[in-house]
Amino acid sequence: MSSQRATLENPDETTAAGDTVRKALYEKLVALVGEGHVLMQEDDRQKHSKTTLPYSKACALILYPSTALEVQGIIKLANEYRWPVWPFSRGNNWGYGTKNALKENAIILVLERMNRIIEVNESLAYAVIEPGVSQKQLNDYLKENKINLWLDCTDSTPNGSILGNAIERGYGYTPYGDHFGHLCGLEVVLPNGGLLKTGGEHSSAKTWNTHKWGSGPYVEGLFSQSNLGVVVKGGVWLMPKPEDFRLFTFEVRSDDRLPEVINALRELSLAGTIQCHTHMVNDFQMLSLLGPYPYDKRDGKTHLSDAALGEFRKKFRIPRWSLVGGLYGAPDVLKMNRKKLKKRLCGLGDIDFFDDKKISAAKKFADFHAKSKEGSVSRIVASLLKPFISLKPIKLIQLIPDIHDILKGVPNESILASAYFKSSSRPPESNLNPAEDGCGIMWLAPTLPATGEAAEELLKLVKPIYESHGFEFSGCFTIINPRTFFLLMGIFFDQKDHEEKARALNLYHELNRAVKSGGFPQYRLGLPAMENFMENENEIHDLLARIKKAADPNGILAPGRYIASTA
Amino acid sequence: MSSQRATLENPDETTAAGDTVRKALYEKLVALVGEGHVLMQEDDRQKHSKTTLPYSKACALILYPSTALEVQGIIKLANEYRWPVWPFSRGNNWGYGTKNALKENAIILVLERMNRIIEVNESLAYAVIEPGVSQKQLNDYLKENKINLWLDCTDSTPNGSILGNAIERGYGYTPYGDHFGHLCGLEVVLPNGGLLKTGGEHSSAKTWNTHKWGSGPYVEGLFSQSNLGVVVKGGVWLMPKPEDFRLFTFEVRSDDRLPEVINALRELSLAGTIQCHTHMVNDFQMLSLLGPYPYDKRDGKTHLSDAALGEFRKKFRIPRWSLVGGLYGAPDVLKMNRKKLKKRLCGLGDIDFFDDKKISAAKKFADFHAKSKEGSVSRIVASLLKPFISLKPIKLIQLIPDIHDILKGVPNESILASAYFKSSSRPPESNLNPAEDGCGIMWLAPTLPATGEAAEELLKLVKPIYESHGFEFSGCFTIINPRTFFLLMGIFFDQKDHEEKARALNLYHELNRAVKSGGFPQYRLGLPAMENFMENENEIHDLLARIKKAADPNGILAPGRYIASTA
């Protein structure tokens, strides 16, 4: 036995030989990245293994390398010791798995110290950055240096990694919201420790960060949603600051108008009137943005009744579906597109537009309100700020300026706060961390063709599953491209309620199975969905397994992450 | 020796054993696809091996399968007999290699019989087609069935394959001109004979043709510019017919304004004013569109002098650089963008816009002229058609309606005719086939960042190379995306002039080396450039070789095409 390596599958935990091997690996890793950048104490490992899922997988240790060279060294050691390594850019993948591996005892690689902004090219409108660069960091950099480029950010944490989200193929709100689509030029540490520059014949190419497809096979897609490399540098296209910008909101009149709204959004997107990624939340998801979960209104059941939800819609004056989006461009373009939006949508609900002036009034109103007693807005103030009285609950008015910022690429935590919906504690003032703060939230995100018919079919499929598991349906239709939406579905649960946790996981698995067999594949996967991903897709499964074997013969890089290791 | 297979590298041509093996393979192939669909006669093989390059590679035989199943069978036989197979959709890749393999004696697979239009989805604006579907075929289908979708076509032959061009990552003119970017959902016969459907967990996905990235690793890029599979079906996004359309032309005032024009085009593209892929040809490339090469003006040299070229510019009233592009959208959008174009470009040259009325007048003028004697336009007709008198030579006026059509996705042969520039014969009335008709033309297409500075640097690099090899520089700057252009460079030569052929090939190789080491990688490659592609790119070369080995252990699929088989 002594000649065998201790591995994840065969950790040899209890033997002295296993201990010796582990100790030797630890020491080499410490020598490589420095003692201060290796977390191996029990409490650190506990803290950093926390997720917002109903379970967590404990890791062996957490490493914080600072250079690509260190990453290469780690990968080489992992090969030598046959020890799985799971890389994360900044590891804030809440609702999908945070920075957990599929199995326990992996080495977790967090790249947040690799946070260099290597280049910002203003005229060609791109940045080259490392995976540790956060949304906040790049946005601050652009603003401080008066660079006329806008970031597209997600509505998750400002501390989130730009490259990490792009590699995972996440979406934002602006016309640059397809983050993988706007990624151009990668440097990747391969599972054999080599450092690859994408682009084909591009190692000295002037177009490495401008021409996405490069020369020869386009391989960057292989490193998205996969386990074939550690992205250590990447080019990101940025949006030249538009001459003008306008936030718009739209409230769908009634549930039965939803299919028609979906069709209208497709038509407007195909025609180029809408170029952004509109988000449309249902009443329950909106409720999660407005305050803590109303446990007292459950009426003995595990979830709110339709009637109780109806009360909330009434109280907060929120519709079944609420949409936000943005118009970007020259003032005359905006004016025209505003007209087109109004014309197409007016029969289906209420549309509203917000310029900077109106947003600043909303801010004042919200501030004033925060200082006064809840609900006690004076008549004078109310009349002064008339446009917002129709905007209903103060929480919504407070949200609007933050959403306005997100649509301008300025990240903030206002949407993220909804992760605390079922927590016993309210979100802190800043630096929200739903995993460490014990929140319970899981996301699923099936895709659907952008037709009202498909939207109806998907809702008919998933809503009864929520119902039968005793949860409220939480959904957000988001435009991926003019032909496709995803429906972001949340499962909120209380980490302290063991019965609810088990029920939440059952719900997750049933939803995952249902959307898969229903023909609505998810645009990205949470950890629990990876176990049997592609189980019925023989050819692609086999090809990817062959590629994995060729690129990572020892199977050390994030085994099971999107690509199964055996055909 | 008898146990060894006859292969391309070891054809065993002269032995009886080799003959027997070849004969057995032939018979099995004939049994598979039918005798009428196997060309193996010497004259057929000669005819179909012809290229527009200075050389051709004779093939073993040409197969025309009609189903994916037949393609799978062929691939399996190729594996059994270790015989290289080179697939081509319709094989009209003139100027890059037509349907030649890198080495002689390969089996050539032409997929033109697989020409089914499987689905056209008008509301979601896509088509699912087989590789044999030509540009003309799909355009005709859309028009005949009154489907309000527009194709983006290339300016090459209407008989060209839509999927073939997209897989090779070709470009057209309209906002949908990035053909690979608008490809969504592929079926691919793998080198092991398996049939793969892309998209990850998409085998029954409703979003297979709407959501480009799918679930899990995005693999479609692997099948573009590569030798990892035979694409047998694909989804293509089509453009909803815009409410309005306008062709515009722009003549750059002088050579020294070119960098500023490039910068203006980038800014207009980044801002979304220009959404199409403008093409801007130099004087010599324009000359190739207007008639036969003026051999009599060479003045004893191998190429036209600057002075002679100046004479032609004067005679035809053409500028150093001429651009075409299109505006697409609602009438008010067009009006606005027209203003913005004028404002930004007016100081740099002359801009002109063409609506349907003006185009129809141009047609009438050209027809009238064709019927009268060359140049003898009566004063009355001239005054009636005044707007076109400024449009200079009759050849240009004849071209405008055809270019107008191409910009609306209606393919025609007017640009392709330039391939006959140095031929002894003029292009036929229709069904142009430059390879079979003995034309000499090669294309190179380096990419460059969309800056005036880069354009100047690239021109300074390549123009002296043309000069030193005794050729006129022929170039066309085309927008790939707002951040990138390619410079399409033509080498025109006379297939009957052996000295010129040798010189043309030398020029090609030197240009290829120069743009590679200069940091201007080509967006696609001609056959002569594939020999040493990626020779200095160790990591990507090694990764792709590993993938190739894993996917195609016998190396039977298009060996050497973009991916070298050994690391």
Helix/strand-derived category of chain A reads: alpha+beta
Q: List segments of chain A where confidence is low: pLDDT < 50 over at least 5 consecutive residues.
A: 1-5
Considering the protein shown, what is the CATH homologous superfamily of the largest domain in chain A? FAD-linked oxidases, C-terminal domain
CATH first level of the largest domain in chain A: which class? Alpha Beta
Shape of chain A: globular
Residues in β-strands, percent of chain A: 15-25%
Distance between the termini of chain A: 28 Å
What is the helical fraction of chain A, as a range of percent? 25-40%
Overall radius of gyration of chain A: 24 Å
Number of strands of chain A: 19
Q: Report the average pLDDT across residues of chain A.
A: 92
CATH level-two architecture of the largest domain in chain A: 3-Layer(aba) Sandwich
Largest interface: A-B, 91 and 91 residues
| Oligomeric state of this protein | homodimer
Q: Predict the CATH topology of the largest domain in chain A.
A: Vanillyl-alcohol Oxidase, Chain A, domain 3
Let me know the largest β-sheet of chain A: 8 strands, antiparallel
> How many separate domains of chain A?
3
Summarize the structure.
The structure is a homodimer of 567-residue chains. Chain A is α+β, with helices and mostly antiparallel strands and 567 residues long.
